[in-house]
Design brief:
The chain is built from one helix and three strands. The chain has 62 residues and is an alpha+beta fold. The chain has one domain. A three-stranded antiparallel beta sheet has the order 1-3-2, with helices on one face. Strand 2 and strand 3 form a beta hairpin.
């Protein structure tokens, strides 16, 4: 198992709950999220900058 630092830009959503779902869905595409934080919000572009740590199963063939 390895850990990776992820930077992602997420479209702001109508509610905080929907934003959380959008963030978690994007991070799960890249691994299993351990932790994440919104580090910046650009209200003009309607984007949130998210930094996260995810784990990814190691390939046993490597």
């Amino acid at each position: 198992m390895t850990t990776h630092f992820i930077d992602a830009e997420i479209e702001l959503q109508e509610t905080p709950a929907k934003l959380q779902q959008a963030i978690e869905a994007e991070l799960e595409k890249r691994g299993e999220p351990l932790r994440w934080a919104i580090t910046r919000v650009d209200s003009d572009k309607r984007k949130a900058q998210v930094e996260a740590i995810v784990t990814v199963e190691s390939d046993p063939a490597i």
